[in-house]
Design brief:
This protein is 49% helix and 11% strand. It has 251 residues and is mostly helical. The chain is globular.
Amino acid sequence: MPLLSHVAYVQAREAYSYGDADVRFDIVQTGTLPHTGTFQGVFPRIVPDTHPTGVNLRKLEAICETVFFDAATAEARRSTTPAHRENIKSVACTIVHWKMVSQGGRGRVENVRSQWTQSTYRQLIRAYQHCSLSDFCIGGVRLPIASAMLRFTHSNEYGIMDSRVVKRHTQPAGITTLSIRAEGNYIYDTKENAHKYCSEYIPFLRAEANSLTAAGVTFSDIDPAGNPIRASFRPCDIEMALFSKQAVCFN
């Protein structure tokens, strides 16, 4: 039995509205990347006319996935260039800015940039190759942001471990037993929580998504090119729906 009703999941996912109009990032061509150029703004669905170079979440997913795949391929072939490294840094900082926009995104990005070292690039490539939440914890990045990086580099498999989702839904329902602050607005950056992300949180998101898919439940969304589509639920869509939901709602 899903945590929310089918109708509630659809309504909540379609109501998802978290965006970042200020983030700016550059992706340069390193081979056959389908999305290159300068981008300004990340929006949940439709990109407004006021931001002609903005992207929606589906396009950001495509950019992150192809940039990491291209860089990992180059690393395996020992053909990495400075452009590969800059693209990875750009994508990583974009995710940080987007994730933390409500809590000072630009400041968090500056923190990541100040701690970036020569080994950061290879650590992120390793994190991508092994789907390692812990390896995504580069300098200036803690578990929730690391989970956002995992979500955007493997969008069909993972979702963000967000404190609001945990506080309002998974902890009260006994789905997760994460260590969080009493007020519930912070997930502690511990090895135990990293383990429980994989052993409790992600299995729940996947089970919910699989249940909705098996029932033929879809929701309206916008694809990377800006076209309307009917989409099946993925783990990240479950998380986005629960993020939008303001109160625990059971069937």
